[in-house]
Design brief:
Two copies of one chain form a homodimer.
Chain A lengths: L3 E7 L7 H12 L6 E7 L3 H5 L3 E3 L5 H6 L22 H13 L2 E8 L1 H16 L5 E6 L15 H22 L6 E6 L6 H5 L13 E3 L7 H15 L2 E6 L27 H12 L4 E5 L2 H5 L4 E2 H19 L5 E9 L4 E8 L24 H7 L6 E2 L3 E2 L2 E2 L19
Parallel strand pairs in A: 1-2, 1-4, 4-5, 6-8, 6-9, 7-8
Antiparallel strand pairs in A: 2-3, 10-13, 11-12, 14-15
Chain lengths: 419, 419
Amino acid sequence: MKKRNLFYAQSGGVTPVINASAAGVIEAATEYPARIGKVFAGHNGILGALREELIDTSRETRRAIQGLKNTPGGAFGSCRYKMKSLEENRAEYERLISVFRAHNIGYFLYNGGGDSADTCLKVSQMSAQMGYPIQAIHVPKTIDNDLPLTDNCPGFGSVAKYVAISTREAALDIESMCATSTKVFILEVMGRHAGWIAGASALAANERGDAPHLILFPEIAFDQRRFLNKVTQSVERYGYCVVVASEGASTADGRLLSDQGERDAFGHAQLGGLAPLLAGMIKEHLGYKYHWAVADYLQRAARHVASQTDLDQAISLGRAAVKLAMEGANAVMPTVERRSNKPYRWRIGTAPLHKVANREKKMPRRFITKDGFGVTAAGRAYFEPLIAGEAYPNYDRGMPRYTRLKKMLVPKRCEPWEE
Amino acid sequence: MKKRNLFYAQSGGVTPVINASAAGVIEAATEYPARIGKVFAGHNGILGALREELIDTSRETRRAIQGLKNTPGGAFGSCRYKMKSLEENRAEYERLISVFRAHNIGYFLYNGGGDSADTCLKVSQMSAQMGYPIQAIHVPKTIDNDLPLTDNCPGFGSVAKYVAISTREAALDIESMCATSTKVFILEVMGRHAGWIAGASALAANERGDAPHLILFPEIAFDQRRFLNKVTQSVERYGYCVVVASEGASTADGRLLSDQGERDAFGHAQLGGLAPLLAGMIKEHLGYKYHWAVADYLQRAARHVASQTDLDQAISLGRAAVKLAMEGANAVMPTVERRSNKPYRWRIGTAPLHKVANREKKMPRRFITKDGFGVTAAGRAYFEPLIAGEAYPNYDRGMPRYTRLKKMLVPKRCEPWEE
């Protein structure tokens, strides 16, 4: 069998462990020296392929590749660049295949979410049509945890851990101050279409009355009266109320709560910030003193407190993608299959890309309590193993030692790409 | 010498290590069994003394007291309750002294910031006037790091570490996305009057060009044109810009930037949120895509990544306060004295309370770069040792095991207090 190179790229929003998948891919590829030549990584994701900016990972030290397992962000650069459909822009796919052909690339490993799964599928199809068949394997990644057919998505477990810990910590803070000061704390978390991240905050609670007292899910239509009642109830019962709100919380008509047409002093639409909006509601109707936090990138980059389970799975899925390629697979994605909750047992499975692409997995209703503000025992049982274990990075003078790569590019062989 | 009880209370905003000082006090007190009876802790700070709600710390297990060293928040409850001046409300001080007398309390250890140092001083003075002299010792604590006469304040080092780590992590995130997406990231941090916390974010940078590219200090008047120029410069040079803004950033006329009279959709003053305000400015004038985060309580409660140095000092200062009491000291505060930067060497000193009360220590100008947007080498040398070492809590099923106390109250002996 001919020796061919492997192309790997990171796509979309990054995670605390996407680089760990990259390390898994690169390390596994070295185990097939007769069949895999070099691993090229796209500089800034798929743009690196279009622009023929291919990073030669063999120029990085072994230590740097190891270091990727502890480094958040996307070490090769990621991008938000959605490939157009074949009808709209066939030329883009043709360009990709030409670059792959010029560099003897036979394996396309794409590390991303739902959109990327779609791109990955199209690359597989187009390359066959163009007579240069490429095995396209999708490596799952998304903190949103919304890919179907896998138990969970790498990145999610670490964000879930960060959010659950932050909720518990902030709750201890407000609990100790609430006698004379702040009564309501609101934490806004990511998850535009699915409430997985918000839901994971439920792990902060051990006993009845523990925070979070109220979770807002995109899956449950927001009702201001019911929300304010629940806040009041919690303050009266426990002295304070901790709210965890998914940025995707929406009203019954499907509009984002954070985009209700309000204008700020400059006349702009409200600049994101569901948390300050909810705080305003609470102040106006209940008069409680509040604090709010918006974790934003902090949650998505918090490698300092990553989940060991998440890290292990991120590495394993990267390795599994290479193995699948070696087994001749095409247009598939390695998945995590959960075998049991306690103890948590999982193995690697596979899913065909046409069943993954462009589908969103929302929180099932049975994971959300009847009142729509909490997580059921079944939900907790789902979340709990995903945050298990602490994968700490190394530190140097009080700061985590994160890896920065050399990112040496391979000499170009194609015409420049007209963007 | 007569055996007398010790009263300890937590005051004002809590920190990741205020409970470690409490543990230091409680453990040290047991070393003087002939002179110190019980340690009573105020339930919700000084209110616990006024209301005669005294927590009997001897009813807690040794393990729980040990656990305090790893637990954020204020385990006995804190409060924002500023004692009035003697002229305005002498009765309040008299009540305190009566409760102390009724419970044979001879030592008053107050764990707080500048306001609390003032209260502590007054208790010492009033008790002498009332013929029931109490030794009042202030245990320093404030994440704002603005107490004078001490190298730093317990709580600050851990918040500094959290903010520096979060800045480095978020910077890796935006750096990997900036080719096609977000160009500016703004992190708002605490510190209403002094820029210490914002300044500590400078430790995120290792090399020229590293984030943070721009820090906004309360000590430097905000100038929109200069700010926007610096953002543009950073985006053009490095592809992105990370801004760390102290909530206390103000214009030249001394008004908080976050309180410039803007009104939101409800007609309220802008609900906190300097970060969204800066984001609005950047969008309006530069058009860059941005993200912003407001860490709020998350930074103040982040015990999961506390500084070992900070923890050690918090415990030591609690112990030192007891030792000072045993040495007959009164109206003083144990301090941290820095002996050298590299290696960091420190010892416990003392400061008289009249020189501590109601004074704020701002960032010295020599710690801030000439352009007002960065931290000098001298500033870095100051900050660096304070974040050294990782004091991790124990974990249980993926979550930090934080201690909750029984908080058993001592039977009351006084008349109810009329609030």
